[in-house]
């Protein structure tokens, strides 16, 4: 895919990785970028960037967007949310919000824009995922579940949209230096670096982009016994049996 020939729509475009996607797409000379967000007034005025009001959790909002911008050839599903909820005792409303945004929001966008992409020659979809799709942690496991669902969605639509010539690329990464991760102590990637890696992969035809070493390592270990991935769980189980 030659990015210069594309008309892109980026969800969650006003901050974080979404903002970096808009900047990197501009740097690569795309024809037009729809910067989609619930608050389009927060999108800075830039040549070639068109603010677009969009709430990926709202069916009507997504349908209006698809009707309004029928020239899109590259859909970047970046909008996401993390409440840091645990599955066993987190608020159900938080868990539902993450699934509604990270999984169903992506699904809504794909279902609404797949016909648009098909009519415009196929184009591409880039879904922003997370290493949390493949690992567990002390918190954020609800977020991980929503991203695991989005990963499965991405694999599924890759097959389903192949017939219309649509490239579907997954982007996965660990912690990134954005507002979402502001309160978490961790090694964090620069969002500009992530956006560049994602678009490098997209242009090269990659179906999956693993944007950092930690993500690459976790993806490579998916086939391992969970007892090897989480040895502390085995220790805890043995401790419980010995009491």
Structure, described:
By secondary structure, the chain is of the alpha/beta class. It has helices at 16-27, 59-68, 92-119, 141-160, 191-204, 213-220, 226-229, 231-242; strands spanning 7-11, 32-37, 49-53, 74-77, 124-128, 167-172, 208-210. The protein is globular. The protein starts with 6 loop residues before the first strand and ends with a helix.
| SS element count, helices | 8
So what's the overall shape? globular
Radius of gyration: 18 Å
The biggest beta sheet reads:
7 strands, parallel
SS-derived structural category: alpha/beta
State the end-to-end distance: 60 Å
**Global mean pLDDT:** 92
What are the secondary-structure elements, in order, as H or E? EHEEHEHEHEHEHHH
Beta-strand proportion: 5-15%
Please give the number of β-strands: 7
Uncertain residue segments = none
Helix content: 40-55%
Question: Order of strands side by side in the largest beta sheet?
Answer: 3-2-1-4-5-6-7
What keyword list fits this structure?
seven-stranded parallel β-sheet, alpha/beta, globular, single chain, 8 helices, 44% helix, 7 strands, 243 residues
Give a quick precis of the structure.
The chain is α/β, with parallel strands linked by helices and 243 residues long. It has helices at residues 16-27, 59-68, 92-119, 141-160, 191-204, 213-220, 226-229, 231-242; strands spanning 7-11, 32-37, 49-53, 74-77, 124-128, 167-172, 208-210.
């Amino acid at each position: 895919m030659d990015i210069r020939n594309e008309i892109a729509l980026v969800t969650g475009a006003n901050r974080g990785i979404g903002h970096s996607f808009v900047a990197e797409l501009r740097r690569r000379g795309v024809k037009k970028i729809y910067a989609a967000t619930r608050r389009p007034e927060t999108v800075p005025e830039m040549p070639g960037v068109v603010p677009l009001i969009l709430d990926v959790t709202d069916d009507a909002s997504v349908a209006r967007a698809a009707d309004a911008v029928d020239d899109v050839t590259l859909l970047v599903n970046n909008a996401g949310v993390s409440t840091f909820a645990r599955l066993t005792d987190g608020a159900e409303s938080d868990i539902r919000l993450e699934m509604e945004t990270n999984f169903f929001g992506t699904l809504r966008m794909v279902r609404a824009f797949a016909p648009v992409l098909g009519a415009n020659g196929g184009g591409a979809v880039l879904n922003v995922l997370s290493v949390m799709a493949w690992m567990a942690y002390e918190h954020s496991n609800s977020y991980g579940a929503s991203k695991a669902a989005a990963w499965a969605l991405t694999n599924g639509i890759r097959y389903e949209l192949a017939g219309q010539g649509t490239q579907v690329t997954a982007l996965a990464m660990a912690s990134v230096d954005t507002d979402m991760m502001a309160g978490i102590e961790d090694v964090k990637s620069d969002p500009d670096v992530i956006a560049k890696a994602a678009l490098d992969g997209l242009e090269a035809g990659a179906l999956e982009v693993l944007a950092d070493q930690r993500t690459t390592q976790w993806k490579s270990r998916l086939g391992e016994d969970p007892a090897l991935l989480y040895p502390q769980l085995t220790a805890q189980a043995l401790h419980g049996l010995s009491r």
